[in-house]
Amino acid sequence: MRPRATCFEQAGDLQRPLPTCVILRSCDNGKKMTGVLPSVGDGYCYYILTDDCTYGSKYFQAGNMCFCSERSYLRNFPDDRPPACFLKVVMLDDSSTVTINIEILEPVHEETAVFLLAVSSHNERLNYFLERLSLEAALKATLGQKVMVEVDRQQFPGVIRYIGSIHKNTSSVLSPFFFGVELQGEGESRGRSDGSYHGTEYFKCKRNCGVFLPFNRVQFTPVPDNDYAKQKPKPDAEEVVPVKVGDAVSFYVDEALTKGIAMAVYREGSQWFVKVCPDEDKGVTAGEWLGKYYFHCAPKRGLFVKLQSCQPDVRFQSSRNSDLNLMDYRDQEVLPQVLVNFPPLRNEAAVRVLRGQMKGIQGHCNSCYMDAALFSLFSCTSVLDSMLFKPFPLCDRNVQNILRDEIVNPLRKTGFVMARSVMHLREQLTEKGQCSSFTTAEKDPEEFLNLIMQQILGIEPLLKLQSGGQEEQDCYCYQIFMDKQEDLVVPDVQQLVEHSFLSSDLKLVEIPSCFIIQMPRFGKEYKMFSKIIPSLELDITDLLLDSPRECCVCGDVATLECSECFKDKMFAATGLKQFCSSCSKQVHSHYRRKAHKPTRLHVPEEFHSRSPRGSQQVPREKMELFAVLCIETSHYVSFVKYGPENEHWMFFDSMADRHGDENGFNIPVVTLCPEVAKYLDLPVAALALEQPRDMDGVAKRLFCDAYMYMYQSKKMALYK
């Protein structure tokens, strides 16, 4: 990796810095001016990709360049709400429109972008962007300046005669800039033009003495020594060098803190430059310093820094006042167990404790299915807290203690659970569940939940179902089974549950405290619906066995149910179709419905007494959505509702980032995603037309990748 240069300006006006050159200056208000932001009126904002990415079937290598309109930029980064995580851009290479995570986009000023675009190799382009010195020399170059240029892998002297675009009548918003150089001395006759390119003259020179080259093939000759001596300021004995070789340094790249080790320190004019090797799990030594070994390690894994230059890395701290020291989970010391029980986090407390990097549950070795499930079930709700305390007959107390004291309570107290604690639970599940792969292999959430709830903790089944008058069936998660419905283009969860219950002739024997529903999809290979709308409330009134029902026409107590009417498009899209006697007679008098065969409902005794129509209101039983587990390919994430408003959603990924290579560790991240509310409020027709790639932030994952919905009844949770 090329070392980056950090520049500290001592005097003169602050100029706009390149993204990798951070110029620090004390301002009147004491604030630090850093980063590169689009200027008002630029028209377009330009970016370079710092990492590879895919978009559909397309692959874009790091070093590709793209742009978006200033209006699009401002729409994604308003002042009155949190910024978006993704940005829709147009690639400069093929003019395709894609949506890219802003974390891999580095802003580039237009005057810089035109030079970078001339470098055809994406890898070289990114390296020169990061190195900065050659690029800055190109920006300062002037006509008549002497240079050395590369022609046929040889270096020849020349003079700059033209700087600019050589592509005419192009439809692209940005044309690459090249240097037109007149070759001199040994370079004469080694060129390919007389200053013309494709019939257009840009400068005049002898035949075969002109070349047009990108800046990376031009070596910009420094000012002659005698002139430099005149300009060089006299040394000041009291001048303080800002950084010494070996110092740990920090600098900002587009408001992101970057750290590294100072490799070289030098001065040009009034500016000090520091070559920095970034801290990306790469050092500069094997334990040797100035010819003497102080310790031994792998090559380029060791660093020597001053003690006063060391400080905790705030990027990987769980909170400002936390006493958790983060390191690889295998090296972590056993922390004292949290013996005090903490309630679930809601509203502002949830945001304060859970949001940020190194928050949530730290993933390790295919644990995402378990991380996402545990975070969903215990971070912001207590509906299944009985798993933590209740002495079930078959309960394995060791597993229960690990779950409560090493995972749930630390999560609710500090907002962070280390991977070691989850691995401890996985080891116990492997032993108790007689399955050797729980510590290593990928699993599905329902496999984990069924194992820990049924076989290990032995809790009472969450659901009791009955089909067609047969014996009751117990289960912990409900899988939706249904035939493909042509009229359901973008269904909501309410519709899917009703269709599934009706097609299987199922009823709930009692109101569940927790209703975990698996969507009609099978792993990453098959999804019945491209989008599913989350039902924030699930009305289960009509799904209950022997419960009073409401006539869907007049609202009186229903006595008959008709499964054929459920499919009739004349009725509402949701809700089973049940009627009182008089409404059923009227509905089925229509010639299209005369062949229907309604079934009689069981009406509770207290609803048998005759009363004026509509005077007996049937109580509605509703459950509220508290979490959604999602999977796009093979990685589970979760959305958790932490407050009452539609905007109160947070997104959790246990492996969102990583520190180090195979010897490093994963960084879990919890972010707020209020953009979800925008799509929840859309009409179904409008939502159906939304392209997933165009949806804001992480909303696409909630609507398109849902795997499991979790609902709760707070009323019933008090009794279970």
Task: Characterise the protein shown here.
The chain has 720 residues and is an alpha+beta fold. The protein contains 18 helices and 39 strands. The strands form eleven sheets. Strands 21, 26, 28, 31, 35, 36, 37, 38 and 39 form a nine-stranded mixed beta sheet that branches. It has a five-stranded antiparallel beta sheet with strand order 7-6-5-2-8. The longest helix is centred in the middle third of the chain and has 18 residues, at 397-414. The relative contact order is 0.08. This is Ubiquitin carboxyl-terminal hydrolase CYLD. Residues 169-214 form the CAP-Gly domain. Its EC number is 3.4.19.12.
Task: Give a quick precis of the structure.
It is built from 18 helices and 39 strands. With 720 residues, it is α+β, with helices and mostly antiparallel strands. InterPro entries: CAP-Gly_dom_sf, CAP-Gly_domain, Papain-like_cys_pep_sf, Peptidase_C19_UCH, USP, USP_CS.
